[in-house]
Amino acid sequence: METNKDMQELEQMRKQMDILKQKLDKQEIVNQQMLRHTMKSRMSWINKYRWISLMAIPFVALCFLLMVHDRLISWWFYAFTVGVVAVSSIMDFFVNRLSDKSIMNENLLELSQKLVKMKKIRKTQTIIGLIVVALWVAWLMYEVYTHGSNNISEEYAKMMMISMGIGALIGGSIGVSIYLKMQRTNDDLIQQIEDLTSGN
């Protein structure tokens, strides 16, 4: 008699544990879905930036073509400038790619690894980019001073060099701030995934 009672209590406890497990599983699924939607929302501005970055290629090509036309820079410098912008924009497009489909369907740990890899490649790309930009600015100054001085006054050439230097500093500052914001976005999402999966 006592054995039957113990068996009934054990069975009841087992059922309660099953119910609790089901509730926890459902809660985890809800938490995962909430995290995925958060990731999708947080990554949306980076995805928009990727397309804006591509749009910079024809814009830069046209602007610097006008400078070639006015004989302020050489064709060599023009080709280098468009090439650098094209490579940088295409790299941005592929390095920062994380589709909504991946976010909503892939394993969270795999997504975390992708975000970590994205951060590392982006850091390397930025360091190389800053070095190339420094060389580009120096060459730009030389171009305007040598080619430009043949077509405009030396005083105007110097004013252009100063303006371009200031523009390069502003552009560089904006680029670095975008880079830091991207890295912070990745860090936040990686941390959220770790917090959610740490118990598994």
Structure in words:
- With 200 residues, the chain is mainly α.
- The protein has one domain.
- 89% of the residues lie in helices and 0% in strands.
- It has helices at residues 2-69, 75-95, 100-105, 108-146, 154-197.
- The longest helix has 68 residues, at 2-69.
- The chain is rod-shaped.
- The two termini are 41 Å apart.
| Overall average residue pLDDT | 83
In this structure, how is the largest beta sheet organized? none
The end-to-end span amounts to 41 Å
| Percent of residues in β-strands | under 5%
The total beta strand count reads: 0
Apparent shape = rod-shaped
Question: What labels describe this entry?
Answer:
single chain; 200 residues; mainly alpha; 89% helix
Mind sketching the topology for me?
Blueprint (H helix, E strand, L loop, with lengths): L1 H68 L5 H21 L4 H6 L2 H39 L7 H44 L3
Quick recap of the structure?
By secondary structure, the protein is mostly helical.
